[in-house]
Amino acid sequence: SVQPTLVAPNDVVRAVEPQARARAAAAGARLDVALEPALPRAWADRAKLAEALALLLADAARRAGEGGRVW
To answer: What is the pTM assigned to this prediction?
Structure first.
């Protein structure tokens, strides 16, 4: 079930970043993260948002491949 709450997008990125960085490194790619400090909170299901972001970053790392960059 969806459980929307007010979510800080940067907090979700920070939570997913270590796993995404490890997956990028395993694929031979580099993950660059630049956060926008002024992003407002948004109504979202934090767990589902984190899962979607992790899947997108994993796919990007896989497609970037050796020497690639995900940003």
So the answer is: 0.90
DSSP sequence for 17-50: HHHHHHHHHHTT-EE-----TTPPPEEE-HHHHH
At 39, list the tokens: 């992003």
Amino acid at the residue 11 = D
What b/e sequence results for 24-62 when a residue is b if at least 16 CB atoms lie within 10 Å of its CB, and e otherwise? beebebebeeeeeeeeeeeebebeebbeebbeebbebbe
- What distance in Å separates the CA atoms of residue 63 and residue 47, rounded to the nearest whole number? 24
Residue-wise pLDDT for 34-53, tens only, equals 999 999 999 999 999 999 99
- What does the pLDDT read at residue 1? 87
